[in-house]
Amino acid sequence: MSAKVIDGKAVAAEVRARVAAEVKELETPPGLATVLVGDDPASAIYVRRKHEASEEVGIRSIDHRLPADVSQDELNDLVETLAGDDGINGILVQLPLPDGLDPAPVIERIPASKDVDGLTPVSIGLLARGTPALVPCTPAGIMELLASAGAELEGAEAVVVGRSNLVGRPMVSLLLGANATVTICHSRTKDLGEVCRRAEVLIAAAGSARLITGEMIRPGATVIDVGTNRLEEGLVGDVDFEAAKEVAGAITPVPGGVGPMTIAMLLSNTLAAGRSVQTTAKT
Ligand code: GUN
């Protein structure tokens, strides 16, 4: 039997439509500042897409570009200025930064209230203790996809493959918050297949092309593929899609699964950041 293919493009379009409708209700459109350092072509494309998507839903976007040889102090200062600017509701520093620049002091200068990427220590701490504020966009988007697929999380066996700060670790907190029983696997996990086969919900976020084979999947599982591995044959996920779809109950494709959700959730976070300031101002 072939799995249901979860349509990330459609779910992302629904999120964007909701954001657009809610932005219209605000007195002032929220403002999103992006900071792009250096000239990595993939990062430039991501940032451009973030601006286009913002414009579509009525969010103001402000583009800051710095050369790859900018000093750490100059970068820190820019983020500090944005942090103090009342016209900016969300700050996103595109990662990775060029070699020689440390992301930690940059991210630490973003106030939690403007942390639309959910990457500051405060945002991570709030999420880890079960009282999330702004949540990292990719895991937040995965929760939307799981809801759209009707995945039952309460008491479910969930396995996350990958322990990155952007996806794996926050994903664990979100699944725990939904009362799943969560296991996290990584490069030192002894028998990856054995652990993955327990999963009713499997999140593959390891950054390794087709790491998850059909035999690693529990029949009927919901499989979310976060991988974006660029091979000569094109974009490939962390899951062997063709084999997995014969075993899984539902699965996201690559591309067209998780990818479109990340930007949609960035818009949703920027709306939330803008709305909380305006609500505070009115009361
Ligand atoms: N680079 C790849 N994904 C992301 C993301 O979600 N946020 C930021 N800031 N940089 C990224």
What does this molecule look like?
The protein is of the alpha/beta class. Helices cover 41% and strands 16% of the residues. The strands form three sheets. A six-stranded parallel β-sheet has the order 1-11-8-7-5-6. Strands 3-2-4 form a three-stranded parallel β-sheet, sandwiched between helices. Strands 9-10 form a two-stranded antiparallel sheet. α1 runs parallel beside α10 (259-282), α2 crosses α10 (259-282) and α6 (137-148) packs across α10 (259-282). The mean pLDDT is 97. The chain binds guanine (GUN). Residues 92-95, 117, 137-138, 166, 262 line the site of guanine.
Features:
6-stranded parallel beta sheet; binds guanine; 10 helices; 16% strand; alpha/beta; 41% helix; 283 residues; 3-stranded parallel beta sheet
Average pLDDT works out at 97
In helices, the fraction of residues equals 40-55%
Report the span from N to C terminus: 55 Å
Which ions and ligands are bound to the chains? guanine
By secondary-structure content and strand pairing, the structural class works out as alpha/beta
Short description:
This protein is an alpha/beta fold. The protein is 41% helix and 16% strand. Residues 92-95, 117, 137-138, 166, 262 line the site of guanine (GUN).
Topology:
Layout: E1 4-5, H1 8-24, E2 31-37, H2 41-57, E3 60-66, H3 72-83, E4 90-93, H4 103-108, H5 121-128, H6 137-148, E5 157-161, H7 168-177, E6 181-185, H8 192-196, E7 201-204, E8 222-225, E9 229-231, E10 234-236, H9 241-244, E11 250-251, H10 259-282
Parallel strand pairs: 1-11, 2-3, 2-4, 5-6, 5-7, 7-8, 8-11
Antiparallel strand pairs: 9-10
Helix pairs in contact: 1-10, 2-10, 6-7, 6-10
